[in-house]
Amino acid sequence: MPCVCSTTHTCLQDAGCFALVLEGIPSELAARAAESLAIPTIGIGAGAGCSGQVLVLHNVLGLTAGHRPRFVRTYVDGFKLLQDALSRWTADVRDGLFPGAHESYQLPEAIGELIASWAPPTASDEL
């Protein structure tokens, strides 16, 4: 059975495509396509024979848990890092440690004194 992509990629180039993304195809086919085209080929799960590579940032940083496609290489366990950071932040909020004085804005001293001396109006003030 003939491979449709053996002619489709050249038709796309001839139609004016400036590049071709090859995703999830056998690396041998991607390499053959790259060799036969004048335009760049960008691979995502298509092997090292392409002109360039794409890997979604979330995959590079390991931001998702669970199944990862075969072509994904994760360089850090970002999911665990974020989970740990958010757990620590939540604990700090619950324990009253965040925000602290360093993360809060302060009024200038003169305004602070004015506000400290202010009291809301009472019912007798309205008469």
Blueprint of the fold:
Layout: H1 5-14, E1 20-23, H2 27-36, E2 41-44, E3 52-53, H3 57-60, H4 78-94, H5 109-117
Parallel strand pairs: 1-2, 2-3
In short:
The protein is mainly α and 127 residues long.
Written overview of the protein:
- This protein is mainly alpha-helical.
- The protein has five helices and three strands.
- The chain has helices at residues 5-14, 27-36, 57-60, 78-94, 109-117, and strands spanning 20-23, 41-44, 52-53.
- It has a three-stranded parallel sheet with strand order 1-2-3.
- The protein is elongated and about 90 Å long.
Helix content: 25-40%
Order of helices and strands: HEHEEHHH
Gyration radius, rounded: 30 Å
Question: What is the CA–CA distance across the termini?
Answer: 96 Å
Characteristics:
127 residues, 3-stranded parallel sheet, single chain, 3 strands, mainly alpha, 39% helix, elongated
